[in-house]
Design a protein that fits this description.
Layout lengths: L1 H19 L19 E4 L2 E5 L2 E5 L2 E4 L5 E3 L4 E9 L3 E7 L5 E7 L13 E2 L4 E4 L10 E7 L5 E2 L8 H10 L5
Antiparallel strand pairs: 1-4, 2-3, 4-11, 5-10, 6-7, 6-9, 7-8, 8-11, 11-12
Amino acid sequence: MRTAVMVVMLTLLAPLTARAKPQARKPWLLFPLDVRRFDHVSSKFGLRRVQGRRKLHRGVDLAAPPGSWVVAAREGRVKDTGRARACGWYVTVQHDNGWRTVYCHLRFDPKRLGIATGMLVPALGVVGEVGSTGHSTGPHLHFSLLDDRGRPRDPLLALYTPAETLRVLKQLGMAQ
């Protein structure tokens, strides 16, 4: 009987285990902050407990001092900009592959920097500054990645690390 229960449990858990395997990291986005000022990842993508309930954290929180530059992780067009209750000031950039990157908790309205819907932004073009607007416990960038169907994806799997981004900048002669 114990063996039968064990077989049934393993059969039921097998699909969950297969889904829980970590995905391979395939970076295609540059780091969305001034890499010299980045501090640490303060909250990762995935389920977390908020006020006693499990909730999906749809991005990654990157801690940095207020006023640090927030930059486009890849070239694209500004799809949306504004202010939302939870996200605070934000910018959404649509990329050629249909995916979108979202930059939240910006210090002030991105329009003050000339960021407007439809505008083409280059990779590493400034889209804002680190702030703490919306539902935020301190200065950081909440960075989200949405696939071509609008589903949230783990940005850390697509991001070059700060060191990798700095190496690319040095190769391009854009950093020392």
